[in-house]
Structure formats: structure tokens, C-alpha cells
Structure prediction request, 192 residues.
Amino acid sequence: MLAVAVACIAACAAGNWWYWTENGQRQPVIEIAHEVPAGSVIRDADLREASVAVDPSMKVVGIQQRDQVVGMRATSTLPAGALLHPKEVTNRTLVATDEQLIGIALKPGQLPDSALRPGDRVQAVFTTDDPGAGDSTAGPGSVQARIVRVGVARESTGERVVDVAVSSRQGPLLAAQAAAGEVALAVNGAGG
Prediction:
């Protein structure tokens, strides 16, 4: 009986040791150092190493891939402290082949005070006296656009740059209006 008890204790100890070594192994993975907005290019300073025990079913990017991640774009906003998932980065510019990316510098009053997010549908309204400019489906003097990235507001002026994707047909018109500072953004409702 004593030999059976000792054998059971030894088997339990070995089982516990195996369980903790298998489930407690830590792996070096990529952690986000500070928030990275969607559409932004990921810099080396945006990343740091974390050593965590990772469940085999959990997909994370290992620290050995750090050099490959730097220079890619965030497909969604990456919060500080989160572990990086492979689908959260891309080499694509987040602009389709039939679209153009236009940067619009906007002052307070030229865009809603509510937070704009990548993917939001907006209407770029021309503030000139030419009501015929633009796209007839968007309305006179306006172009339908999709937010790609929202820059940080400058402390001195409150101005921020908003990158929008528009159809290649409307890109030059919007770029000209944006360069003249004659654009305001209106956010479309959920129905478009």
C-alpha cells in the first residue's frame, strides 16, 4: 500500500510539472507601446517586446517578426498594451485601385467635433461659390469620401489633416479644393 501511495504521489508530481512547463512557457511577442491610429504606418518606436504565456490557439506576432512589421500599416486602431495580431497590419495603402488618397487640412468648424474614425463615410463639401462642382450623386459642390486616417490636431491652431479616399474621377477636383482651403466635412448617417 505504501508503494502504491508513493507511486501515486510521484505520478501527480510529474503530471503537475509537465502541466506547468507546457502551459507556463513564455514567448517573446510584439506589444503595442502606445496607441497607433488605423491607417498609420507602424514605426519601431510603436512596438515593444512582451514575454507572455500564449495559448496555442491564440494568434500573435512574435518579436522575431518586428522588422517585418515596421513600415506596415495598422488596419484598425491599435491600443497601447495590446498584443499584435497578424490581421491588424497590412502592406496595402488602404486605398482601392480606383481611388485616390487626398489629405485635407481642416480647421475647427470645417469638420464635426465628434470623433472621426477610419471607414466613416463623409461628404466633402466645397465652400466655394461654384454650386455645380462635384458629383451629382453627392449633391452640388461635394464629393463622397471615406476616412482613411485622422491626424492629431495642432495645439496652436486646432487644425488637423484628414486623409480621405475618393474615386479617381473626383480626386483632382477635391485635391484642388483642399489646397485652396475650401472644403468642409459632413458625416453621413448610418444609411449612407
